[in-house]
Amino acid sequence: MAEKSAQDNRRRLTAKDLARQQREISVSEFFSKNRHLLGFDNPKRALLTTVKEAVDNSLDACEEAGILPEILVEIAAVDNREDRFRVRVEDNGPGILKRQIARIFGKLLYGSKFHRLKMSRGQQGIGISAAGMYGQITTGKPVIIISKTKDGGKADYFELVIDTKANEPKIITEDSIEWNGHPGTSVQIELEGSYQRGRWSVDEYLEQTVMANPHVSLTYRGPDGRERRFERASEVLPEDPKPIKPHPYGIELGVLIQMLHDTRARNVKECLRRDFSRVSERNAADICQAAGISEHARPSRIARQEAESLLSAIRQTKLRNPPMECISPIGPEQILVGLKSNVEADVYECVTRSPSVYRGIPFLVEAGIAYGGELPAERPARIMRFANRVPLLYQSGACVITQCVSALNWRQYGLGQPSGSLPVGPLLILVHVASAWVPFASESKEAVASYPAIEKEVTLALQECARKLRIHLRRRRREAEEDRKRLHIERYIPHIGEALQGILNFGDAEKERLVADLTALLQKSRKG
């Protein structure tokens, strides 16, 4: 009874009370409370993610400006603490316009890459601003940006934080200072983190970055005081990808309706031709006819049901694949340069597959293999995963690349493999997925999602490399078997000489000459 009385006396909330509790949540506020989604779920990973986002931005900026990148990465412990670090990344890129600096570093979901169908490392406009927000949350310190856009003159200096409730930058300090003699950008973030060498570390990320980007020159100063210099292994810049229009096969109904309402085209036929790739005038007319819509209808007046008919007609019309100039592969030659510059092995094989399409979006897969040499022989193969030239270190099990490597039957290529696991042996496997829009499994961009088209291309690339490796392994085994037989014969040549001497009754000198001739014949066979 007392329990029932307590329930009766409890104040019940009205609809007005509930309404007063509702308020809009900004994207910054959401990610500040869910930072694990962006790769800041533990101190070690937070340090790596901060370096990664800054380096990715620097590489994109340099390459788009046609500049061979010179990158400096500096991590220093703050006040000799083991849990607080100051990360600084500096580049020789084109710099950033003063009016853009605050928004790029102080506003989530702000950038130039989200709406472009063009391969780039960054895509969402979240990375570097999220890193700055994490530093702000854990240390209270602002992000420090120095940027210079031309030779001579002064550089722009900013200290800023993010107003998470408004998702807007709040400038603490703004000034002009003397800086480098050349254009470029420097970003400094102080944050709580954990530094460790080895797997999933900043060191591993940078090593893999220069492997997939041999045109980069990178200097790394770690918190242990050591400096490492990764020299540029190639003077060839990646081919500059060109943005393309969306392909109709990748469009969903809601997106199509929005595009019809936003288009500047005068009619539906013109909209299909102007706003999409690979739609010819004939294709546009056929789509309108199949949908039962007049070619001259105004796009903004197309109703939802008509848009659904239009989408159905698009999917039934045979269209060419989207243009592939939006992708810039590493290329077989540059993959070999990267592997040979960083891995001591006996065999190197690589392949770049022809471009393919998923959901109307172009992509291609590249794979490389290094075998033997200094690679450990009794361990599972090491996998290096890349998306748009960026190393993927975490969430390996959730990535389609790892799944394809484990699913492939490596035994038929001459390698040991426990059931359903990675192959075992002195083997390094590199796989790169390049796309105008990489389908990541989560916002932290650490694993490529498993689309059937991507899974197929990864598997085919691995099989092609594995077949080349099998030829080498078979040759090595054949040579090893021949060496074993030669060694066996060499052991008995003196006995053969003695037996022939006893049968044919010739002297010791002739016996020695016979043994020498037989040995020379065997050696000649080995050289052949």
Description:
40% of the residues lie in helices and 18% in strands. Helix 7 (202-212) packs across helix 12 (332-342), helix 9 packs across helix 10 (281-291) and helix 10 (281-291) crosses helix 11. The protein folds into four domains: 27-230, Heat Shock Protein 90; 248-316, Helicase, Ruva Protein, domain 3; 332-468, Ribosomal Protein S5, domain 2 (2-Layer Sandwich); 474-527. The chain starts with a helix and ends with a helix. It has helices spanning 2-9, 15-21, 27-33, 43-64, 98-106, 127-139, 202-212, 253-262, 268-275, 281-291, 304-316, 332-342, 400-407, 452-504, 508-527; strands at 70-77, 84-91, 143-148, 155-163, 168-177, 184-192, 217-221, 227-230, 347-352, 356-358, 361-371, 382-387, 390-392, 427-435. With 528 residues, the protein is of the alpha+beta class.
